[in-house]
């Protein structure tokens, strides 16, 4: 089972890297946040505002990094009539789902890493932050953000199993990008909603952690760890839904 998962994941990652246009588009989307925030910081001298903008763009980058791979890995193969031969093999559907999920997660986490690196560069160049984050903050935030990438990949994989063509998948996946954006905007413009429980929730927790990381506000690394664990838990549930969809007769019919 492990060998099958790794073979599928490797194949999807290699295919994704071969699509130069998709890789370039994902890179542009990942760097869009740091570039926009950097330009805004030239005229808006408010660390809280720029940190909030960075946090929202970081959430979005988790969903755009693996979007091109997600729309191709199920919907694209179904459209090209090459999904059915894969499913006709004596391969556990969970292995197929996990392998494809790992591939999408690879690109989602890579997009997050590029975005956060760009944001940290902006913070350093603009002098927004006067103190360096401690190791606990960095590690806990990295874990929570990586978990967000896993969740984004699982959600996108489920959507890919529900669509019949790349264009249809692209439409719905593009709409999903508004989910982290909406959560981010709500928490920024509704500070009263930022209760003690907010830092534990998927997306909300990552948003608050990125804000704290960028503007130098301390946060509890344990809360960030719990947020990451809960996010991984939700991602696993979504992955189970995707695996169940691969067992559904509609998948075979439309293949």
What does this molecule look like?
Helix content is 80%, strand content 0%. It is mainly α. The protein has one domain (2-254). It contains twelve helices and no strands. Helix 4 (67-79) packs parallel to helix 7 (135-161), helix 6 crosses helix 7 (135-161) and helix 7 (135-161) runs parallel beside helix 11.
Secondary structure layout:
Blueprint: H1 2-18, H2 20-41, H3 47-64, H4 67-79, H5 83-88, H6 93-126, H7 135-161, H8 166-176, H9 178-189, H10 204-215, H11 221-247, H12 249-254
- Average pLDDT number: 82
* Biggest beta sheet summary: none
Beta content: under 5%
Radius of gyration: 19 Å
Structural class computed from helices and strand pairing: mainly alpha
Terminus-to-terminus distance: 23 Å
Shape: globular
> How many separate structural domains?
1
Condensed summary:
With 255 residues, this protein is mainly α.
Name the features:
single chain, 255 residues, mainly alpha, 12 helices, 80% helix, globular
């Amino acid at each position: 089972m492990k060998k099958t998962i790794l073979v599928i994941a490797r194949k999807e990652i290699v295919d994704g890297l071969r699509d130069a246009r998709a890789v370039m588009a994902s890179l542009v989307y990942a760097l869009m946040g740091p570039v926009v925030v950097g330009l805004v910081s030239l005229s808006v001298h408010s660390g809280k505002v720029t940190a909030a903008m960075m946090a929202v763009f970081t959430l979005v980058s988790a969903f755009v990094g693996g979007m091109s791979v997600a729309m191709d890995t199920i919907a694209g193969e179904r459209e090209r009539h090459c999904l059915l031969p894969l499913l006709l093999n004596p391969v556990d559907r969970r292995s197929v789902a996990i392998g494809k999920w790992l591939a999408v997660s690879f690109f989602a986490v890579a997009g997050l890493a590029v975005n956060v690196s760009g944001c940290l560069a902006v913070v350093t160049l603009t002098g927004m932050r006067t103190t360096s984050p401690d190791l606990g903050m960095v590690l806990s935030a990295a874990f929570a953000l990586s978990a967000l990438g896993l969740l984004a990949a699982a959600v996108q994989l489920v959507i890919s199993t529900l669509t019949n063509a790349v264009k249809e998948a692209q439409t719905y996946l593009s709409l999903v990008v508004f989910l982290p954006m909406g959560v981010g905007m709500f928490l920024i413009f509704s500070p009263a909603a930022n209760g003690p429980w907010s830092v534990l929730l998927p997306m909300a927790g990552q948003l608050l952690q990125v804000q704290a990381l960028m503007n130098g506000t301390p946060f509890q690394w344990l809360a960030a760890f719990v947020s990451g664990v809960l996010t991984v838990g939700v991602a696993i549930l979504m992955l189970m839904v995707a695996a169940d969809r691969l067992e559904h007769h509609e998948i075979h019919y439309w293949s």
